[in-house]
Write a structure and sequence with these properties.
Distance between the termini: 23 Å
Radius of gyration: 18 Å
Largest sheet: 11 strands, mixed
């Protein structure tokens, strides 16, 4: 089904700003909404969403924050819709399997990395900016807990700009999984894969490509060759906002132990861990989280412009 079919069936709706950008051929950057509803507390979540959108605009692209509201995929949200997501305790956390349910029932749904990639593809958007991708959870050899983000990266042709994968995960296994499924990991400004709160995971990315124009050429070559799926653009948190590895590792270990003791599992794990780490760090992790998302927005806007020029 193409985009016009989705519009005709009232399954997708574009904000006036996004609709104008599509019509005039301006670069678009998709933004997720789970970071608003499940990733940060109110009011920092809504404030950060607005600031990230402003950064995308300031760097010459148009932001398209994505969510499911009133039975439709909404591509581009107004202030009222952002507030709704930021203050809805019952907002669903939507991955691939959940999108049809939220649309069919009219539930408020915030899109994860996987769902945002799907919606961005339906909307014709090639670049998506987030904080950090999901991945293989620690202990996955017994729990089989692997984020659907990784499978989506293997099948959906959208470039995902992130600060690596969340450091609550098993990063080595996450990179192995991506390699197995042919998902390239590009690093910006350094050779190694970023680790969300910290700049360096100690693990090599596949390729270092710093310039947006060179990243765009890589992606155009990949897709022209018929190699499906997306790519990870690993952009480390700015030095001044990075947390010391030893410190954050201690918080993560404690939060993981507490989550296990409380029987928290599945989709509830990541929001719990992020909130608990924020408390343990006295809010320092939230400051880092906000800084890295904003930094990713600058890289994502540059890539969106470069891809448009390299069509």
């Amino acid at each position: 089904m193409n985009t016009q079919d989705l519009i005709d069936r009232q399954l997708i709706d574009f904000s006036p700003e996004v609709a104008e950008a599509r019509a005039s051929g301006r670069p678009l950057v998709a933004l997720e909404s789970t970071i608003i509803s499940h990733g940060m507390p109110y009011p920092q979540n809504v404030q950060t969403a607005r600031e990230v959108e402003a950064i995308v605009r300031a760097h010459g692209a148009v932001p398209a924050t994505i969510a499911v509201l009133d039975g439709k995929i909404r591509v581009g949200l107004n202030d009222e819709q952002l507030e709704l997501l930021g203050q809805s305790p019952d907002a669903m956390k939507l991955s691939r399997r959940d999108l049809p349910f939220a649309i069919a029932t009219g539930r408020v749904g915030a899109t994860t990395v996987a769902a945002t990639m799907i919606c961005a593809r339906l909307a014709g958007i090639e670049v998506f900016v987030t904080g950090g991708i999901g991945g293989v959870h620690r202990g996955a050899e017994t729990s089989f807990d692997i984020s659907a983000d990784l499978q989506e990266l293997a099948r959906t042709p959208v470039a995902v700009v992130c600060a690596g994968a969340k450091s609550i995960l098993d990063l080595a296994l996450t990179l192995e999984y991506l390699e197995t499924h042919g998902v390239p990991v590009l690093s910006v400004g350094q050779e190694n894969f970023a680790a969300f709160y910290t700049r360096d995971s100690g693990l090599k990315a596949d390729f270092r490509i710093d310039a947006a124009a060179d990243q765009a050429r890589f992606l155009r070559a990949k897709w022209a060759l018929g190699l499906g799926g997306g790519a990870v653009i690993s952009n480390p948190v700015p030095v001044e906002h990075a947390m010391p590895s030893a410190v954050i590792d201690g918080y993560i270990a404690q939060a993981l132990a507490e989550a296990s003791a409380q029987g928290i599992s599945g989709k509830a794990v990541t929001p719990y861990l992020l909130a608990r780490i924020k408390d343990l760090s006295a809010g320092a992790s939230l400051v880092t989280n906000i800084a890295l998302v904003k930094h990713n927005a600058t890289v994502g806007a540059a890539l969106a412009k470069a891809l448009l020029q390299d069509r």
